[in-house]
Amino acid sequence: MKRTLRHPIRGDRLHPKPSSRQPRKSTWNREARQPRMRPRKSLNVASLVGSPEDEPSRPSLRLRVVGILFLVLFLVLGLRLWTLQIIDGRSYAAAVNRNQVRVVNIAAPRGQIVDRNDTVLVSNVPEQEVLLSRVSATQDPSIIGKVAALIGETPAQVNDAVKNVRYSPYEPVPVVTNVSAATVQYLQTHQSDYPGVSVQTITQRTYPQGGTTATHVLGYSGDITSQQLAANPKAGYNQGSLVGQSGIEAQYEPFLRGVNGRQALSVNASGDVVGTLSRTAPQIGGTVVLNIDTGLQQAVQTDLANQILKDRRTPDAADNNKLPPAINGAAIVLNPQNGQVLAMASYPTYDLNQWVGGISTANFAALLANGAENNWAIQGEYTPGSTFKLITATADLQDGVYSPAHYYNDTGTFKVQNCTGGTCNFTDNPGDSGGEYDLATALTVSSDSYFYNLGELFWEGRATYGANAIQNVAAQYGEGVSTGIDLPNEVEGRVDSQSEREKLHRENPAAYPNTTWYTGDNVEMAFGQGATALTPIEQAVAYATFANGGTRYAPEVAAEIVNPTTGKVVTQFAPKVTGHVNLPASVSGPILQGLEGVIASQKGTAYGVFQGFPTSWNLAGKTGTATNPGAKEPNSWFVAFGPNPNPQYVVLAVIDEGGYGAEAAAPLVRSIFDYIVANPIGAVKTPTLKSPPTSTMPASNPPFGTPTTTTTTTTTHAATPTTATTTSQAGG
Fold first, then answer.
1. Is residue 731 part of a domain?
2. Mode of pairing for the β-strands spanning 569-572 and 435-437
3. CA angle, 636 as apex, 304 and 664 as ends, to 5°?
4. Does residue 578 fall inside a structural domain?
5. Is the peptide bond before 645 cis (omega within 30 degrees of 0)?
6. How far apart are CA 219 and CA 636, in angstroms?
């Protein structure tokens, strides 16, 4: 290629070609030699790259370089496209689908709760629910007024329902539940007039035996709270979930809740649901089988309510004919051989139907005001009075403070020896006659002085027996500690001691200023007074432990969980042993003799109440009349077990400020035993596919002692009429 000498831009100028002639070398002359100068080397572009005139033209090389560069770019682009479409294609496709599909839960129906005879206590009933689409309400606000007029609510109520954040934004919002068939039919025939309005079938809790049967045992369900939602982040709950809030509903929530279904909805770019892609049906929750016998439960509830109402109308002759307020109360029936809870009642009570669909503010306030929401059987704390003498008697015989044959002279008063602080003088209950008593007789007549003396002897001999000898035996019986019953929110009682007083003082110095412990304090504690406060379930467990020979069982309300689809038992709750009390015959024999005398002996504090009861049952029991501070009426206690020597039932009753144990609580326990004698409790029946649960209760017999003219069999139980004399010796 021939080079041109023209300037590349200004082609009209020529540049002469540099001369190729070499410069002439100078002649070497030694005399004319000058200092040699070394030129400074420097890096520049000109030294590395030749000028266009010095370099040969290579256009083909340049084209090849450019081509290779473009080829590399295309390869990189192709590799990237291959990665996006082949390697990451599935994940991106899933992302696209997520933008178009919304998965919502379908609430599962809650499982049934049945009693030991397969009688349904809690079930579900289908109801019609009207729903309104949020999108339709936004696009056409007039639909809110039309729906309100149709269902009989105000537009504000419907608007509040639409704005309820607990419901998914991709689902229609429920605005009213349990609508009439006429309303449903009208909507179906006028669908075009109500765009965005639909009707669906849901389930609500129903109570075939009435909403007041076993109220506190069954409990209720309601909308999940924010605290519950935060505490169970992986349980699959959402803001609209229905969960158990109390009783068995809460205790066995994991079994009752079932498995939610899933529904995949197709959603457009605006977030509107345009179709259903798939649907997985929900699975109903498990069936919880209880140890409760419904007939006995209803009898206990009715007897408890009747006795409290009667007590409020009966003047207390021992306290200036004052009418006992009988504020609240509880009654419990246990099987002492395994801890099964056969019945449990608390008064005042309420109707579980109030909670279906959400309780009103007024109704909830009323429940709180009268304490009806509390389960007093496991949450009430009552001074136990003479029912605590079982504990002191056991400690006495275990440690050998007194022998069973030792007689003590009860003069009706007791003075603590060398008393320097606290209470020094004690008196028996009014009406106690006093006399010479051994341990068994002291229990039969409920001699206070006998146990005053034991309290003093234990404290004076604390170097031998220990400072907390009686309290330690109480703990073995389960008093002052959680029983482990399978119901939520159980309260722990307390047995008075110096350490317990110091604990209470730290928690509330104003309410519990006294932290000292004197001999008189030990005396009060020994017969169930002072700061001792026990729950009814704790005292029932204590007497059940003695009745079976010393094995303490956790009380159990539930027997098993059954899969309603297969009829197979998922979980069976075996008896749980929580402790032991050493009760050899030398210890249990004299105590049992004294407790049997409470009912069988003419000197017994409950002898008059149980006149006419079958002697073959050979019941043993104990009254308790626990003094309350101030001018309040005493707490009324009675507990009995039988038939001995192999007892199957422990029945306990307590009425807060109900008066003497023999006059209020003992008649209540008698009425309950009257029902049991006529209606023995059978074994637990497991519901199967061939023998599913039924809403019809088995027929029950009239309670023992009911007049023979009564021939009607009912599922409820009234107070048992009796010709027996109900007056008895006043006593603990």
1. no
2. unpaired
3. 50
4. yes
5. yes
6. 27
Chain-centroid distance of CA 678 in Å reads 34
Domain boundary among 641, 657, 673: 657
190 and 338 inside one domain: no
214 within some domain: no
Interatomic CA distance for residues 260 and 251, integer angstroms: 19
Q: Are residues 387 and 522 in the same domain?
A: yes
Instruction: Specify whether 408 is located in the same domain as 539.
Output: yes
Domain boundary, last residue among 620, 638, 657: 657
Of 156, 157, 163, 155, give the one whose Cα is nearest residue 138.
163
Q: What stretch of H or E contains 498? A: helix 498-507
How many whole angstroms separate alpha carbon 526 and alpha carbon 509? 25
The set of residues, in sequence order, having a beta carbon less than 8 Å from that of 601 and lying 6+ positions away, is 444, 607
Tell me, yes or no, whether 402 and 539 share the same domain. Answer: yes
pLDDT tens readout for residues 158-213? 888 888 776 766 677 888 887 888 888 888 788 778 887 878 777 889 999 999 99
Dihedral of CA 165/168/172/176: which sign? Answer: negative
Instruction: Tell me the pTM.
Output: 0.80
CB-CB contact of 197 with 131 (8 Å): yes
Q: List pLDDT tens digits, range 413-443.
A: 999 888 777 778 888 877 677 899 999 999 9
Map residue 129 onto helix, strand or coil.
strand
Residues 6+ apart with CB under 8 A from 444: 594, 595, 597, 598, 601, 603, 604, 605
Range of the domain at 144: 122-207
305: left (phi over 0), alpha (psi -120 to 50) or beta: alpha
CATH of the domain at 604: 3.40.710.10
Let me know whether 203 and 331 are in one domain.
Answer: no
Q: Identify the three-state secondary structure at position 251.
A: helix
Residue 492's nearest CA partner among 529, 530, 523, 532 is 532
* Cis amide bond preceding 348, omega within 30: yes
Specify the pLDDT at position 710: 44
- Asked if residue 11 belongs to a domain, the reply is no
Domain count, the chain: 2
**Residue pLDDT, tens place only, 561-616:** 999 999 999 999 999 999 999 999 999 999 999 999 999 999 999 999 999 999 99
DSSP code string of 346-410? EES---GGGGTT---HHHHHHHHHHTTTS-HHHH--B--GGGGHHHHHHHHHHHTSS-TT--EEE
Phi, psi of 547 (to 5 degrees): -60, -35
Residues 6+ apart with CB under 8 A from 243: 221, 222, 223, 224, 228, 237, 250, 253, 257
